[in-house]
Amino acid sequence: MAARYGALCRAHLRLEYLRANATTHDFLFGAIAELIDNARDAGATRLDIFTVDNDQLQGGFMLCFLDDGCGMNPREATHLIYFGKSSKRQSASKLIGCYGNGLKSGSMRLGKDFILLTKQEDTMTCVLFSQTFCEREGLDEVIVPIPSWSVSTRKPVLHDAAMFAVQMSIIFKYSPFTSEDELMQQFDAIYGKSGTLIIIYNLKLMLNGEPELDIKTHSADMLIAGLPDNLPEKWSLRAYTAVLYFDPRMKIFIQAKKVETRYLPYCFYRPRMYPYFTFCFKAIAQNEIEKAKKDLKLAEQAVKEAKCQLKHLEESFLHEDNEPAHLALQDALENAKRTREKLEAKQR
C-alpha cells in the first residue's frame, strides 16, 4: 500500500512514536500552549481559538487555531512534518520553540488528526497529518500530503498532476473537507495576506466517551471536563491563557470573545503566607517564647514591688512624698504591658 504513495512526503517516523510523543503532555492545556506558542513565534497579533460542530467526527467538533502571523511557504510547511527540524533556530530573535516538535506533540495529544492551512505571499499550502489515514491504509510510516496553490490564480503550484490528484484524494477522504472549494473557503478564513489555520479533529475521548474539552458548560470558554479545582487556571482555558505569558503581546480570542490577559508582575501585589516549619526554626522560636515569659515574670514582679513600696509610704507616719513611687509604679505597669504584648506576638 505504501508504494502507491511513494512520491509523497514522509515524516520518517512510525505511528507508535507519534503516539508516545503525545504523552509528554500530561496537562491538556500544555498541549494547547504549544500551538499558541507557535502563533506567537510567527509574529501574530491575534489568535482565535474556536470550535466548529461536526457530528461526523469523533468528539462531535473540531478544535481550530487561526492566527495572522507570517504563515509558511511550501518549503517551510514541509519542514514542520519532521522532528527536530525548525527554521526558528536560524532566527536571531528570542523565540519559544526551536526543536520542531511542539506542533506534532501538542496536536496529537488533542486529537488523532489535524489539517493545517497556511498562506504566505502568493502561495497557499495545506498539510494533512493524519493517524487515521495511516492506520486505515495500513502504513508503517507517517505519510503527509502537502499540496500548494497560487493565491492569485488558485491553481496548483505542483506541476505533477498525478501526484496532486493523489494528495487531494487523501485529503478529501480523511479530512473534514470533501472538495477543493471547501478547502479554498478555509484559506479565505485566514484574515490578511498571511496567516495559519490549524484544525484538529477526531479528538481524544475520556473513558466515558466524552471529549476531554468541555465546550458546553460555558459558551465563551473551554474547560477540562471533570476536573474540580480551586485554581481556575487548571481547568479553564480562558483563565489559563490570561496568565500564560509574562509579557502578553498577542490578542487571544476564545470562542470569539477576547481574553483579558494579565501582566504577571502586577498579579503579585497580594502576598500569600505559606507556612514553613523546620526543627531549627521551631527550637529558636520556643527559646524566644521562654525568654519572653521570663521577662514578663520579672516585669510583673517589679510591679508588685512598686505597689508594696507605694502602700508602705501611704501607711507611713512620716508622710513622705510618694510621687516618685507613683511614677515608679506607672513605669513598671507600662513595662509589664509591653513585655506581655511581645510574648503574645511570639506565641502567635
TrEMBL record:
One GO cellular component term: nucleus
The primary location reported for this protein is nucleus
Q: Which UniProt keywords apply?
A: Coiled coil, Metal-binding, Nucleus
Q: Which residues cross the membrane?
A: none
Name the coiled-coil region(s).
282-346
- Output the Pfam families linked to this UniProt entry: HATPase_c_3
Where is this gene product found?
Nucleus
GO-annotated molecular function: metal ion binding
Classify the source by domain of life.
Answer: Eukaryota
Q: Which Gene3D superfamilies does the entry link to?
A: Histidine kinase-like ATPase, C-terminal domain
In terms of SUPFAM superfamilies, this protein maps to:
ATPase domain of HSP90 chaperone/DNA topoisomerase II/histidine kinase
InterPro entries referenced in this protein's UniProt entry, alphabetically: HATPase_C_sf
Q: What's the protein called, per UniProt?
A: MORC family CW-type zinc finger protein 1 isoform A
Source species of the chain:
Alligator mississippiensis (American alligator)
Gene symbol? MORC1
